[in-house]
UniProtKB/TrEMBL annotation:
Pfam families: Pyr_redox_2. The lineage of its organism: Bacteria, Bacillati, Actinomycetota, Actinomycetes, Pseudonocardiales. InterPro entries: FAD/NAD-bd_sf (IPR036188), FAD/NAD-binding_dom (IPR023753), Ferredoxin-NADP_redctase_2 (IPR050097). Keywords: Flavoprotein, Oxidoreductase. This is Thioredoxin reductase. Residues 9-280 form the FAD/NAD(P)-binding domain. It catalyses: [thioredoxin]-dithiol + NADP(+) = [thioredoxin]-disulfide + NADPH + H(+). GO terms for molecular function: thioredoxin-disulfide reductase (NADPH) activity.
Amino acid sequence: MLGTMKNEFDVVIIGGGVAGLSAALVLGRARREVVVIDAGTPRNAPAAHAHGFLTRDGIPPKELLALGRAEVRGYGVEIVEDVVHRLRHDKAVELASGRVIRGRRIVVTTGLADELPDVPGVAERFGTDVLHCPYCHGWEVRDQRFGVLATSEKSVHQALIVWQWSKDLTFFTHTRQISADDRAKLTGLGIRIVDGKVSELAVENDRLAGVRLVDGELVERDVVFVGPKFVPHDRLLSQLGCARAEDGSITVDAQGRTTVDGVWAAGNVVDPMAQLVVAAGDAYRMASALNFDLVLEDQGATLASA
């Protein structure tokens, strides 16, 4: 059965989120033979709605991906639901099912994972009333009782941002130390600071009730913002030896090329801060450059054989 499948493509795209599907749309419309391999575990699966994507604001993430898949299939793009086991230097992609697919070019759009603070209740409520991005969900929870759980040196910055959506804001220092200047800035804006380690997020009737400290005090909150650690799914790029920047991220040029010939990347795997619409736009730009790279190769082959 595997032998009857098409296993040679112009472009193999690994990762079928908005970045991968955006690249597939561009390349499919450019008359390229394209396959998208997707494991079916999108980062935004816990969220009920996706926001900030023009004409699709508030759409459930699964519906957005289903619409994207339908669009790219209309241009002949194949969608394969499978897990990539290995990416080889000869541009062969080994799947968990045993199928091996080859492409003239490889695109990696595998995204990232959110590594959440180890506080009971955070992971369970993440995407509902535990949030990290006010631009994604701030409007929906505006003017509610906010909390910010300090988890990194960026937590004060996060509090200063979410203040725009609610002035009833409490900053929980948890295990972090904050400077006198930061304390003055927060309190000057009316932000309450609660010192002491947080033991858990309390939940009642499937809703966040508040933040409980180790001394037993419960501070009632409706929404808590946290700052996850972004962990790119870049294992496949590491396998190939793609170069990394000083901050540890995979290096790509302005068009999306990695340092390994024929391998390109876009979206959160190389830019953890990119929102959906940004990841889609970056992938569009990358796919346009990749197609032109193939055009030059095709023209060179044609001239050489003339």
